[in-house]
Amino acid sequence: MSTNKQRLHVAVGVIRDGDGRILITQRAKHAHQGGLWEFPGGKLEAGEPVQQALARELEEEVGIQVQRAAPLIKINHDYGDRHVLLDVWNVTAFAGQARGCEGQAMRWIAAEQLREFSFPAANLPIIAAAQLPHYYAILEGLSAAEALDNCRRILATGIKLLQFRVKSLPSIDLQNVFEQVSQLCRQQQVSLLVNTDLPVDTTNAQGLHLSSRALLACRERPNGYRWVAASCHNLDELRYAEALGLDFAVLAPVQATASHPDAAPLGWQTLTELLEQINLPVFALGGLGRHDLDRALVAGAQGIAGISAFLAAD
Ligand SMILES: Nc1nc2c([nH]c(=O)n2[C@@H]2O[C@H](COP(=O)(O)OP(=O)(O)OP(=O)(O)O)[C@@H](O)[C@H]2O)c(=O)[nH]1
Ligand SMILES: [Mg+2]
Questions:
Q1: Kind and range of the H or E element at 236?
Q2: Nudix hydrolase domain location, by residue (predicted)?
Q3: Taking the model in full, what pTM does it have?
Q4: 84 Cβ inside 6 Å of ligand 1
């Protein structure tokens, strides 16, 4: 039984250089998952703290000294012959010049190129996490003018991932506002996801954001979108999103929020416990702002999602 198998705790680094490129290395032919590409890292020694193991493994394997690292995602994966807990960290500052210290092939690649390489099966959500930013803004507005103004304000803060959820517009305005928002997003290389509750033609949309109701009605991942995400409120919905192979989820409400006064907040502790049970990048939503990012990362989240939180820089 897999539950009796010992779980190997592995420290893994998504190492980024000054241009945002990511370091990947190739596993030795004879190793577990041999020949596939990976993010450098290795097993914790008995009693060793994970950050210490990360620093030791990256020094041993690619000759760098970690200066700054933050949690990215944790993946629990059972390969049948072994069960691993991949404890993945973003390494954003380091000293030294990376090299393949064990003779392994090595490449610095753009995040978007990660899908062109073959990684072990457990790495799929790590790749999504490495490609996603830490903030996911939700666009709302009570009129066409307000929605467009909000969009400009959000994009001016540097947001790169946006959900179109302008619910209260007459449908005659909606498609028009959507086209304008799409254009602004294209110009500024922002990924745009359309909420499925809106009667918008999504043929040219880059992404789809499923409401929790739409999520549960799906039998397979919708085709043809770069990003497919979903709104979740509990473990069952998160598990369903993961099983469908979605790219990420939003979990709400983490804190009390004026926009949903009747929903009981999950709190940070429950958020942490839920995220430990799934292998999917998840943005924390509800009563949060940019200043909550570090806390969200420690809880295991990808980052923060919000509506009003991103209308202005902090
Ligand atoms: N380092 C690393 N390991 C991964 C990744 N994805 C993945 O499934 N693994 C699995 O996690 C385990 C990590 O082991 P490792 O081989 O790197 O461990 P290590 O550096 O301590 O190696 P050693 O046993 O040669 O000392 C392996 O079973 C490997 O297949 C990844 O992206 N990076
Ligand atoms: Mg290793």
A1: helix 235-243
A2: 5-133
A3: 0.95
A4: yes
